[in-house]
Amino acid sequence: MEKRGIDVLKDKRISKSTAFNAEEKKMYGLRGLLPYAISSQEIQKIRVIENIRRKESNIEKYIFLSALQDRNERLFYRTVIDYLPEILPIIYTPTVGEVCQQFSHIYRIDKGFYITPEDKGDIPELLGNWPEKDVRVIVVTDGSRILGLGDLGCNGMGIPIGKLSLYTAGGGIRPEYCLPVMLDMGTDNESLLHDMMYLGYPHKRLKGQEYDEIVDEFIRAVQAKYPRALIQFEDFVTHNAYKLLQRYQNEVLCFNDDIQGTAAVALAGVFTSLRITESQLKDQRIMFLGAGSAATGIADLMLKELVLEGLSETDALSRLSFVDINGLLVDGSESIMPHNERYVRKEPSMSFAEAIRELKPTILIGASGAKGAFTREIISLMSSQNDRPVIFALSNPTSKSECTAEEAYEYSEGRVIFASGSPFAPVSYHDQIFVPGQANNVYIFPGVGLGALAVEASRLPDSVFLIAAAELARQIHPSDLETGTLYPRMTSLRTISFEIAVAVAEHLYEVGLARLERPKNIRQYIKNMMYDPTY
Questions:
Q1: Of 92, 198, 411, 443, which residue is the catalytic one?
Q2: Residue 134 is part of which domain span?
Q3: Is 163 a catalytic residue?
Q4: Residues 442-489: pLDDT tens digits?
Q5: Per the domain annotation, does 69 fall within a domain?
Q6: In this structure, are 219 and 265 located in the same domain?
Q7: How many domains does the chain have?
Q8: Contact yes or no for 300/441 (Cβ under 8 A)
Q9: Is 36 a catalytic residue?
């Protein structure tokens, strides 16, 4: 039976609120339930933006937008798409970090799917409770390493919710295809365990074989119920991030955004920086601050690209080095883990500054979560050894950034080629305006996801992320390079995602990983897939 009356207004997928015209009000039994005036979606969008701008804090803006998403989904996405540069920092980084920290205290309405150790053995049955029968994209986390904030347990659900809204806004993937999942394995965050408002499984974090068994049951249940679904692993602590990716990458359609998405967006920024320095990647020396999943993921993808450009793996490895809290990663370092063993160097132990003096990196990439680690000394040292030092401060949220944009330009006397993980405002230095680019994974994952879904990919090899990085770098306009911007304008995200999706789809056909018969016109096919929230 077709919905009528108040049920229409309560259905976020079909409600247009004050945009229903007189004929529709009569047809759906809405007379008397709405004001007289009929507002176009354009007017409604202006009203939304006016209300957002009245809010005094970003978290209040987030709560307002979340409520809009729950009552009028199409208006929410139309507003996000049309005001993306303004809204992205609210619905994702950096505000999402604060949202996750306060998730249990600002909880309003049920979003997402939660699995705890008590559900072991029943996960296939549990998935039957999700109302959508055709899920195509799943973002899953266990909350163990949310951004640079650490273990936030169940509160980390803000991440899958935010990422999936960007799959829709940025990649045109229909919202009903999206499923945010929290593998709530407990938390080792004592403040959460003692917080009476905390909504998660109130026990110490599950580890070891039992943890692995629950994750595996979830993966197998998804394969059975949603065989076309792409699984995106998000914000797992480093050893689990690598373990899960290595276990499932060649079996199911999945990827890890912290490892592979971050790598692709960073590599794209490096490609763009090389246009400014007029040099080649194979001639660079690249140093990473941080040796976790993000930094190592970037190095792994760069290693593949360096080999493609003609270097031997030994020569390529010699151009990549890591520094962590204990200094240069060398033989005998305490922090060596399986995922970064091949980057261990033969030099004697040395500090961060000493490593820069000795190894003379041309590119410095921070993925450490160490606020202020790129000090005046470090940036000045990079500048003394390079005419145009390339420095990326990628840690999120802003409170964890290795340096600010203003510090980077000031300490380098305006010579740095800079990008960051968090957004920074344009910087004026000696009458020149610099516009720092944001190395945001949103440039990568919506397009990769759309391309994978378009061809019903069986899995995603690492080569997909090389393709995505190269395509993203191609999207930068030459005029943007003049202000030091290494990434395209966020207003073009839908176009960027579309072009990445086409490139990814073409590649997946080439390597035999597409399960759908090739359409006559792949560009038109993908364009027709993309969700349009206009009414």
A1: 92
A2: 91-252
A3: yes
A4: 999 999 999 999 999 999 999 999 999 999 999 999 989 999 999 999
A5: no
A6: no
A7: 3
A8: no
A9: no
